[in-house]
Amino acid sequence: MGVAPPTPARRLTEVGSEAAQVIPIGIGEFDRVLGRGVVPGSVILLAGEPGVGKSTLLLEAAKHWARAGRRVLYITGEESAGQVRLRAERTDAVDENVFLAAESDLATVLGHVTAVDPTLLIVDSVQTMVATDADGVHGGVTQIRAVTTALVSLAKNSGVAVVLVGHVTKDGAVAGPRSLEHLVDVVLSFEGDRHSPLRMIRGIKNRFGAADEVGCFEQRDNGIHQVTDPSGIFWHQRQGDVTGSAVLVTMDGKRALVGEVQALANDTEMTNPRRAVSGLDGARVAMVLAVLQARLGMKKIGKAELYASTVGGMRVTEPAADLAIAMAVASVVNDRTIPFTTVAIGEVGLAGEVRPVSALTRRLAEAKRLGFRHAVIPAAGADREELPSGIRITRVDNLAAAVDACMPDGKPAFGF
Q1: For the segment 86-143, what is each residue's pLDDT rounded down to a tens digit?
Q2: What is the reported pLDDT for 415?
Q3: Whole-number pLDDT of residue 411
Q4: What digits encode the pLDDT tens for the residues 267-280?
Q5: Could you count the other beta carbons within 10 Å of the beta carbon of residue 386?
Q6: Which residues cross the membrane (predicted)?
Q7: Long-range contacts, 165-171 (Cβ 8 Å, 24+)
Q8: Which residues, other chains included, contact 284 with Cβ-Cβ below 8 Å and sequence gap of 6+?
Q9: What is the pLDDT at residue 222?
Q10: Domains of the chain
Q11: Residue 145: how many CB atoms within 10 A of its CB?
């Protein structure tokens, strides 16, 4: 027997969306990944490695939220209130609408929410919270699930937006039970290299927007600042042509980023010459080297030390970078320069063919915006999209044609 529902089901056209209006935080790159902003009553999980800047970023978000006249309650379970205050002073995040409590007991946190009545609750971190009515060790699976369930219930019943800070495991996954990601509305990954100031928020799950958006930030002494045009970080704006350098356009989520690949070759007497790769997929670089040697007759590759790297700490793993890698290596090995106004986009196959890639229109539009005048792209699949005008496009179907298109200096495509 069914049970009579307290409220009848309504037509979808009769359900209002007022309760799910988006409120911008005020940080463009953060709002971009969230899907224009924060939805009241939503729960956001921000995960990242220790020291990457999660707390600093959320304190910056609290500042912007508070300066719009809205109350924020910041719960810190890992630091004292004094430590958070010092960071707030350093990053200019002190505001009377930001309320701070150093607390790890869940019931007390709920009491603070009732007393402060915030519109945004930040819990740093969910692993430090303790639910006294739940079993399990502090920070264990049972405790994390109980704490998250209670905070999700709070958000849905009160309309308070909740941001949870989460830890990550050694392999970069969100720590805790897998159900943690299912309970929340948005899961974000905050990534960065400790040797580089660049930080990125990557959407993993988003019930209110695209799940593959990326936001770029830069870590500085006075806090974290958004980078609205990150392409300039990843390529060197040189005035002359040099050998061993090629420009690519990669897709990070829905965002097109222009980057630079550099290659260096040194003669060596070693039986097994050294291969070193930074910022690229080592397996794909090895494959590209093998294709150049086998299909274009570049025998010198097998007898030289070869180094390949991206510029500015960029990490590229997608196959669309293959053509730029191949052109950079061919340039340095054959001592031929690629004009700095040329970009190379395409996947390389084992037969030496240049294969089509996704989002070609977006890639070319970004290259054009940054002043590049020539693009070498795959011949196959180019007619599926409406390519932008104002940039000269050369379609190639194999590596030999790509070398001739990228290096118009009159020398043969290969001469080893």
Answers
A1: 999 999 999 999 999 999 999 999 999 999 999 999 999 899 999 988 888 877 889 9
A2: 39
A3: 58
A4: 888 888 999 999 99
A5: 8
A6: none
A7: 165/46, 165/47, 165/54, 165/55, 165/58, 165/122, 165/123, 165/124, 165/125, 165/126, 166/45, 166/46, 166/47, 166/125, 166/126, 166/127, 167/47, 167/50, 167/125, 167/127, 168/47, 168/48, 168/49
A8: 317, 319, 321, 322, 325
A9: 87
A10: 21-228 (3.40.50.300), 233-406 (3.30.230.10)
A11: 18
Q: What residues in the chain have per-residue pLDDT under 50?
A: 413-416
